Amino acid sequence: MAGPPPKPWPTGEAMTLEPLVRRVLAPNPSPYTYTGTQSFIVGAGEGCAVIDPGPDLPDHVDALMAAIGEEKVLAILCTHTHRDHSPAARLLATRTGAPVIGCAPLVLSDTGPRADAAFDRDYAPDRVMEDGEAMTGPGWTLTAIATPGHVSNHLCFALEETGALFTGDHVMGWSTSVVIPPDGDMGDYMRSLDKLYAREDRIYYPAHGEAVEKPRQLVRGMIGHRRQRENQILRLLGEGPRSAAEFVPVMYKGLDEKLHRAAEMSVTAHLIDLERRGLVARSDEQWRTI
Question: Which domain of life does the UniProt lineage start with (predicted)?
Answer without folding.
Answer: Bacteria
